[in-house]
């Protein structure tokens, strides 16, 4: 009986004719895009990170470099001067830039996963023709949702859009903590066009930054992400036309929910980049720094910690790019996007904190950029 069992050909249970590509296996275009972003971030961005952080200012040369390399219009169609690449490509660019400077990654993330896509998905042909070429080539955008009394409860906003008899609107209110505000040439503003309907009156408007009545306030003096401008936006009787409405009146809350679901994946990509950036700085130090005649990295207790951090980064990466693929396949992805954002944020904080500990005294200084 035993001989008969041994003579039966062993079936290869681990293989089948139906195969799925790993979620971390990227296409040729995606790989080249990632490499391009890594090269630019290393050669152009890295040398000026400390100076921008100290000055709390984004250099014009960095901003122009983002546009010149096509990083600001990743999914915009080439017919509108965009790169015409995938959502995954956009997230890979965000990750690679965050690996060097999260302040710049925020700008790229908001542009690609929020405002660009909102205009692509729901903008009228006229809005798309007007703004997509500019968003891809020279115009920074800002996503204007939060207010002083409507942060997490975003739909409690007080900003109003009063409709005139000719169909135009007058916007009044103050938005708070608006990323990119200092550099933005266009604002995606959410305002309530019919407060009697509650959140179902919320409408989205695409507003040129040069419109009379718009004032960008003083940038916040932040603990981190200092090169990313975060400012209040005051709207004082700002006149906009019916053509500036994004999609349908009263549908702004749905657009907001949908686009922020995608934005969560972009945030997860930022966090992966932050964690990897800390690793990039710390691991060489651990291999060079010696104590008791031995590189710190060679102590087993240290290796256990590094292995755990590397495992968590990989898990976050897998979750994030799985969410990307679900989104691109048109499948439900909201749960996975939320999970990826949550876990990646925890991993980024934990990895950064651990790296500061591993670096010892120098980790408490600004010499190596880990604190950034």
UniProtKB/TrEMBL annotation:
Give every Acyl-CoA dehydrogenase/oxidase C-terminal domain span.
Answer: 250-371
Q: Drop me one GO molecular function for this one.
A: flavin adenine dinucleotide binding
Q: How does it assemble?
A: Homotetramer.
* Family note: Belongs to the acyl-CoA dehydrogenase family.
Which of UniProt's keywords are assigned here? FAD, Fatty acid metabolism, Flavoprotein, Lipid metabolism, Oxidoreductase
Q: Which transformation does this protein catalyse, written as a reaction?
A: 2-methylbutanoyl-CoA + oxidized [electron-transfer flavoprotein] + H(+) = (2E)-2-methylbut-2-enoyl-CoA + reduced [electron-transfer flavoprotein]
Please tell me the species this chain comes from: Fistulifera solaris
Asked if the Swiss-Prot or TrEMBL record annotates the protein with the keyword Transmembrane, the reply is no
This protein's pathway reads:
Lipid metabolism; mitochondrial fatty acid beta-oxidation; Amino-acid degradation; L-isoleucine degradation
This chain belongs to the protein called short-chain 2-methylacyl-CoA dehydrogenase
The record places domain Acyl-CoA oxidase/dehydrogenase middle at 142-238
Catalytic activity, EC: 1.3.8.5
């Amino acid at each position: 009986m035993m001989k008969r069992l041994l003579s039966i050909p062993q079936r290869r249970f681990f293989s089948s004719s139906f195969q799925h590509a790993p979620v971390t296996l990227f296409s040729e275009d995606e790989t080249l895009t990632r490499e391009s972003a890594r090269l630019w971030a290393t050669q152009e961005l890295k040398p000026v990170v400390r100076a921008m952080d100290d000055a709390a200012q984004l250099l014009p040369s960095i901003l122009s470099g983002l546009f010149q390399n096509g990083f600001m219009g990743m999914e915009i169609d080439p017919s509108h001067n965009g790169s015409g690449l995938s959502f995954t490509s956009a997230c890979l660019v965000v990750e690679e830039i965050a690996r060097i400077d999260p302040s710049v990654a925020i700008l790229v993330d908001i542009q690609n996963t929020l405002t660009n896509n909102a205009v692509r998905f729901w903008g009228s042909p006229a809005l798309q023709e007007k703004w997509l070429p500019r968003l891809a080539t020279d115009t920074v955008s800002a996503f204007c949702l939060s207010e002083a009394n409507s942060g997490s409860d975003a739909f409690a906003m007080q900003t109003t859009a009063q409709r005139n008899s000719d169909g135009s609107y007058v916007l009044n209110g103050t938005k708070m903590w608006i990323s990119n505000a200092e550099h933005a040439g266009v604002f995606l503003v959410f305002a309530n066009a019919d407060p009697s309907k509650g959140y179902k009156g919320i409408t989205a408007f695409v507003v040129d930054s040069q419109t009379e009545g718009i004032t960008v306030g003083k940038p916040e003096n932040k603990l981190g992400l200092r090169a990313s401008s975060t400012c209040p936006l005051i709207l004082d009787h700002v006149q906009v036309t019916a053509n500036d409405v994004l999609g349908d009146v009263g549908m702004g809350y749905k657009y907001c929910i949908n686009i922020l679901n995608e934005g969560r994946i972009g945030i997860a990509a930022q966090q992966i980049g932050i964690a990897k950036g800390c690793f990039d700085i710390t691991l060489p130090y651990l291999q060079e720094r010696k104590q008791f005649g031995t590189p710190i990295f060679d102590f087993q207790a240290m290796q256990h910690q590094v292995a755990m951090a590397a495992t968590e980064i990989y898990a976050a990466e897998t979750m994030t790019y799985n969410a990307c693929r679900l989104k691109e396949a048109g499948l439900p992805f909201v749960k996975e996007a939320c999970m990826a954002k949550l876990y990646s944020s925890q991993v980024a904080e934990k990895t950064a904190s651990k790296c500061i500990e591993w670096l010892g005294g120098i980790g408490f200084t600004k010499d190596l950029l880990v604190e950034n």
